[in-house]
Specification:
It is a single chain. The chain has 197 residues and is an alpha+beta fold. The protein is 32% helix and 24% strand. Helix 3 (46-59) crosses helix 4 (139-156).
Length: 197
Amino acid sequence: MSISAEHLLSVVRQYWRSDHEFDGKLERSPELERFQTLWEEKLKKMDAWYVLMDELQAALPQFGIGNATATCDASFRCSVYTAREPIYSSQENESMTRRWVVVGCVSILAPVYMVYGVQYDFRGEERIADRVFFDPLPPEMRAPAEVVARKIEARFGVEAVPREIAETRIPLIVYPHEPPDTTLFHALFTAWPESVP
């Protein structure tokens, strides 16, 4: 498959709206109906996703592996976690730690995937900052990201979306994003890339 922003936009238009016509109504939009029907179909094949989790755990035993899938998003998501590590803090009484997560997403809307990273900073147990990284990832995220990408491609036969296409602005609403801030990434994968359980 040749990935183009135009083709992917034509696909996501079937599932996301460009207006607020159905906001506050009991009636669901045709786009939401299609989206929920598609999720019902995809969830019947969830076993393949769990097999991927097992494969990742075997390939990356030093990391925590999690399922970050949420049906409000348009993708299955997996996460590869590090343990928290101490970081510098100017306040001696506060414990500051950092962890990072590599996230693999497989869209339910098109045969495409993307891998990205998130860095979390904590003060005690409180998350005080997060930062999302797309290609190129920081060096410490690259090796596990390559494993995630290889496993996703082998298991699902999907193609990676290049960053420049994922960042294409689209005229659709993927809550909480509205034009001109909505991107193909939001529509194909998740509107909250920093939110990884």
